[in-house]
Amino acid sequence: MKRNRILMTAVTLALGICLSACSLTPAFRKETGPPTSHTVSRVGDAAYRIDLQGLASTSRHGVTLHLLKRAASVTRKEGYDYFIVNGGEVRGENEIQATPFAGSFPESPSGSMVEGSARLSQRYSGSVLFHVFKGEKPPDNPLAFEPTEFSR
């Protein structure tokens, strides 16, 4: 009998420690690191596609600029002089982030109701299809860019 009681106490204590560790984990974490995650694919002899997933803190303009900077980087790395954007898009996806532990807590001393909240944010992603060329950039094409236009 005493042995069962000790075993139950140990199990209860272990379970309590495990559950208390869960409540110490922050519910929201600020995203850190580079502003995006991207992939570069070669789709032809001188054609490339870049797909990019931005963070929640990256704006539509930021995703567009990063796509163009990556295209400039690929152009420079492959030994070409300029690139022409042939297509692409930037998409926004709504995300709802709810506050955890929302609801009423009748066991609280005041018996008050704790209301939850939610925040709507947009996460942008995009892609660009471009061709790379050697020689002089055509001055009359607004979709033609030299890599130096996006130097840091």
List the helices and strands and how they pair.
Layout: H1 2-23, E1 36-42, E2 47-54, H2 60-77, E3 82-98, E4 103-104, E5 113-114, E6 118-133, E7 144-145
Antiparallel strand pairs: 1-2, 2-6, 3-6, 3-7, 4-5
Summarize the structure.
With 152 residues, the chain is of the alpha+beta class. The protein contains 2 helices and 7 strands, in the order αββαβββββ. Helix content is 26%, strand content 36%.
Major sheet strand order = 1-2-6-3-7
Shape: elongated
- Can you give the helix content as a percent range? 25-40%
Q: Number of DSSP strands?
A: 7
Major sheet characteristics: 5 strands, antiparallel
Q: Structural class, from secondary structure content?
A: alpha+beta
Question: What is the strand content?
Answer: 35-45%
Average pLDDT taken over every residue: 76
* Cα Rg: 26 Å
Span between termini: 73 Å
Count of separate DSSP helical elements: 2
Q: Which stretches are poorly predicted, pLDDT < 50 over at least 5 residues?
A: 18-35
- List the secondary-structure elements in sequence, H or E: HEEHEEEEE
Can you describe what's shown?
Helix content is 26%, strand content 36%. It has a domain at 33-99 and 117-152. The protein has two helices and seven strands, in the order αββαβββββ. Strands 1-2-6-3-7 form a five-stranded antiparallel β-sheet, with helices on one face. Strands 4-5 form a two-stranded antiparallel sheet. A hairpin with a 4-residue loop joins strand 1 (36-42) and strand 2. With 152 residues, it is α+β, with helices and mostly antiparallel strands. The protein is elongated and about 85 Å long.
